Write a sequence for this structure.
């Protein structure tokens, strides 16, 4: 296994006075090399589509370790998806070997979960807290909307959930929002009540929803500066991918982690005996490297704020900006068309994507009268490619929303074009998986009422709010012999009424021992009856 600080020998022995990371710089263009080797407090890498940003990020991490400027535990690399985090972790592992295991390479939410697991007891939670996914949150909000009669004011579970999520991503809780809300509006007042009840239910269940993971970590750092300093001292190099897609809560988290150690420390008590005042340590803030492109910011509907990247130089004075404009994925015709479209945007870093792979085929545009016309055009193009030797598995069709797949499926079936719809229900969102997890959650976190509610009838046990309580064991009447009393079982009863039909009077039938079946005298189970027969067996 390659040691983290032993340079890889590529293409022959390296000179004795060469950089220890010289092999990491091979194959990079000028701007990419500059992005890997720059050392400063803040670096903005404006990476166009297909410009090799992942390669730059992973080699920058390997370079920091190879030059002994950081330990693996001092590096925090954040991406937006688990898939991207896994790819980055694998690439870094290929470059530096097992030293990559000590780094935090994860999504925003995964990093915050690790922090909260350690520090949740600081503000009233336990380390065994539950994380509600969107389905769990929707179920809880649906119940609260019904309890508060929110549907009478036009509040739906989906709309309420979306609104609460947006407020949390802006770091607004129920209390702060109530101070600015128009409480004279009945619908607004009911929403505030639902929001407050939702937070109380989460607190009671020792649970966070998905949006809480980042917001509560920010609150933790702001409320407990000494806790924030622990992580500021640990993470000396922070790298963030897809920075143009960050929302306000994610921006605030990065801002808290990159503040100087002790910069916001306040007097705090230790053991209730003495008051200590934390003094600034004089240690520099962690270096921050962000990679993004304002031209690719398309998630404003999910709370992404393009100002986080367009105003990066104002937030971090003296920041270095590196433009990655060479594209390795597309032809020049595609890049020229993309440049012509995006150049009309305002508040962007001006850049021109280019490639050295040639002009490529011209772009073909088609306008149909309906979605079925568009789908038929796509099917015809696929058939033409297939006749020219392209396998069906080598063709991909992209559409904007899931609803657009219906027309494509109908036309593909008519045209006998084989296809496969990618996506579907995620593994952890399947009902049987959520049921199994609910049992584990109920054991680990008994305060989680949502998990208990889910497993009450999984597997189905006919449990409901109106189900009668199980009868307590009754003492046999004195007329029966104790030796004749069989052991109670689920399907047997030791006592049966002496008459088959209840009388019209209010007097109950006196119980007597059930006679045994003549064919099965050894059985304690009640005898079988034919639907119409009145005799045993």
């Amino acid at each position: 296994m390659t040691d983290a600080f032993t340079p890889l020998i590529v293409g022959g022995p390296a000179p004795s006075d060469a950089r220890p990371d010289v092999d990491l710089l091979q194959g990079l263009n000028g701007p990419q090399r500059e992005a890997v080797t720059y050392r400063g407090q803040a670096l903005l890498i404006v990476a166009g589509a297909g410009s090799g940003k992942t390669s730059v990020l992973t080699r920058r991490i390997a370079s920091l370790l190879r030059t002994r400027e950081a330990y693996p535990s001092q590096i925090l690399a954040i991406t937006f998806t688990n898939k991207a985090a896994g790819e980055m972790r694998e690439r870094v592992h290929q470059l530096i070997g097992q030293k990559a295991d000590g780094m935090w390479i994860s999504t925003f939410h995964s990093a915050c979960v690790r922090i909260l697991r350690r520090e949740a007891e600081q503000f009233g939670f336990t380390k065994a807290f539950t994380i509600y996914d969107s389905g769990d949150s929707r179920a809880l909000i649906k119940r609260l909307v019904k309890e508060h009669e929110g549907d009478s004011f036009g509040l739906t579970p989906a709309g309420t959930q979306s609104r609460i999520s947006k407020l949390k991503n802006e770091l607004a809780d129920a209390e702060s929002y109530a101070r600015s809300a128009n409480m004279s509006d009945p619908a607004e007042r009911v929403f505030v009540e639902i929001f407050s009840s939702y937070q109380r239910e989460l607190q009671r269940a020792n649970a966070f929803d998905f949006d809480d993971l980042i917001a509560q970590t920010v609150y933790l750092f702001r409320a407990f500066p000494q806790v924030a300093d622990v992580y500021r001292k640990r993470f000396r190099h922070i790298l963030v991918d897809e920075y143009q897609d960050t929302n306000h809560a994610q921006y605030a988290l990065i801002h808290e982690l990159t503040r100087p150690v002790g910069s916001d420390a306040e007097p705090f008590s230790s053991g209730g005996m003495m008051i200590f005042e934390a003094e600034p340590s004089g240690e520099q803030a962690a270096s921050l490297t962000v990679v993004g492109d304002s031209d690719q910011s398309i998630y404003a509907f999910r709370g992404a704020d393009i100002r986080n990247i367009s105003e990066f130089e104002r937030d971090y004075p003296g920041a270095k900006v590196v433009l990655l404009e060479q594209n390795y994925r597309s032809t020049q015709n595609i890049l020229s068309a993309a440049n012509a479209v995006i150049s009309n945007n305002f508040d962007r870093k001006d850049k021109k994507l280019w490639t050295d792979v040639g002009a490529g085929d011209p772009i073909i545009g088609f306008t149909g009268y309906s979605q079925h016309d568009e789908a038929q055009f796509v099917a015809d193009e696929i058939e033409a490619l297939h006749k020219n030797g392209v396998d069906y598995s080598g063709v991909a069709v992209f559409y904007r929303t899931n609803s657009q797949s219906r027309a494509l499926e109908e036309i593909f079936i008519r045209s006998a074009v084989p296809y496969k719809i990618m996506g579907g229900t995620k593994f952890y969102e399947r009902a049987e998986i959520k049921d199994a997890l609910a049992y584990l959650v109920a054991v680990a976190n008994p305060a989680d009422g949502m998990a208990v509610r889910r497993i009450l009838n999984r597997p189905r046990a006919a449990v409901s709010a109106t189900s009668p309580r199980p009868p307590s064991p009754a003492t046999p009447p004195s007329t029966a012999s104790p030796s004749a009393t069989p052991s109670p079982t689920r399907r047997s009863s030791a006592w049966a009424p002496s008459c088959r039909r209840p009388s019209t009077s209010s007097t109950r039938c006196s119980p007597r021992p059930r006679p045994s079946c003549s064919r099965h005298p050894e059985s304690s189970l009640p005898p079988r009856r034919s639907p119409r027969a009145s005799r045993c067996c």
